[in-house]
Amino acid sequence: MRVFVAGSGSSGNSVLFETERARLLVDCGIGPRGMGKRLRALDVDFEARALDAILPTHEHADHFGRAAQLARTTGAPLLLHRGIAAPRLRASHDVRELTVGQRLEVGDLSITTVAVPHDAPNVAVRVEHRGVAVAMATDLGHVPRAVVDFLATADVLLLEANHCPRLLAAGPYPASLKRRVLSDVGHLSNEQAGAALRALRGARPARAYLVHLSAVNNDVDVATRRARASRPDLAVSALAHGAPSELDLRLDRRRRSVVYGQMSLPF
Ligand SMILES: [Zn+2]
Ligand SMILES: [Zn+2]
Questions:
Q1: For the domain 2-258, what is the CATH code?
Q2: What is the distance in A from the centroid of ligand 2 to the CA of 76?
Q3: How many angstroms is it from 162 CA to the middle of ligand 2?
Q4: Burial class (CB within 10 angstroms; exposed 0-12, middle 13-18, buried 19+) of 7
Q5: How far is the CA of 199 from the centre of ligand 1 (A)?
Q6: Which residues lie near ion ligand 2 (Cβ < 5 Å)?
Q7: What is the pLDDT of residues 208-265, one digit of tens each?
Q8: Closest-lying ligand to the alpha carbon of 28?
Q9: What ligand is nearest to the CA atom of residue 14?
Q10: Which of 122, 215, 220, 225 could form a disulfide with 58 if both were Cys (CB 3.0 to 4.6 A apart)?
């Protein structure tokens, strides 16, 4: 499996999961042309192969804004959970129902989801292929135990580190927007992301990418330092707002087997 983050943050989110048999797009905040351009920078031809499914996590524009356009141009079905109303889209496109919490296969990709607390019904997504699992959780105001447990079953994490509370407080956002970002159904701060990583100590994740960083209220170095201070044993890096990247899915199998041995979680 290869995983490409075409963009991350308020200007558009999109992650492509690719195997020889399946292609899944999670989130659709970037249009087909933008996807083509950003993935070309990673030596990937977005248009060369059909998408098998498009899974938007929630209805906010930076995750959902280009859903109709991407579904139209790629012909791929949209997997929508019932928290996404989108009546016009449902009436005019190939929409399949995604039941949150239920496993779903797209080709040889196995997909699971869990609800996360946000001001629109939202899910974290875990995608597994041949024993390697990647979980992504962005746009959540806090990390409930159920989400920690969900993330604990992945090897590689894409975790929101949206803002530094100091930069947010001193920054240009109006007070109402600052309150929204900071609320229990807003976005994770660097500190909250660090606390989630600490709660995952001893669990399966061996690498974490910090994503959905605010271009205004955060900084790659600040976010990375904060997360590394929380988990010096974990490989952590932060993806700059909007920058395309391919995830490194190489895992130390010996370390994994030791970690498995200490845990009682069913894999
Ligand atoms: Zn977002
Ligand atoms: Zn959102």
A1: 3.60.15.10
A2: 23
A3: 11
A4: buried
A5: 23
A6: 60, 139
A7: 999 999 999 999 999 999 999 999 999 999 999 888 999 999 987 655 544 443 443 3
A8: 1
A9: 1
A10: 122
The domains of the chain are located at 2-258
CB 24 within 8 A of CB 48: no
CA of 253 to the centre of ligand 2 (A): 35
C-alpha 147/C-alpha 205 separation (Å) is 13
The pair of three-digit structure tokens given for residue 99, joined into one six-digit string: 């039941």
The first and second tokens of residue 221, run together, are 């170095």
| H/E run at residue 170 | helix 165-170
pLDDT computed for residue 254 by the predictor: 54
Residue-wise pLDDT tens digits, 91-127: 999 999 999 999 999 999 999 999 999 999 999 999 9
CA nearest to 160, candidates 210, 115, 195, 117: 210
Whole-number Å distance, alpha carbon 65 to ligand 1 midpoint, is 11
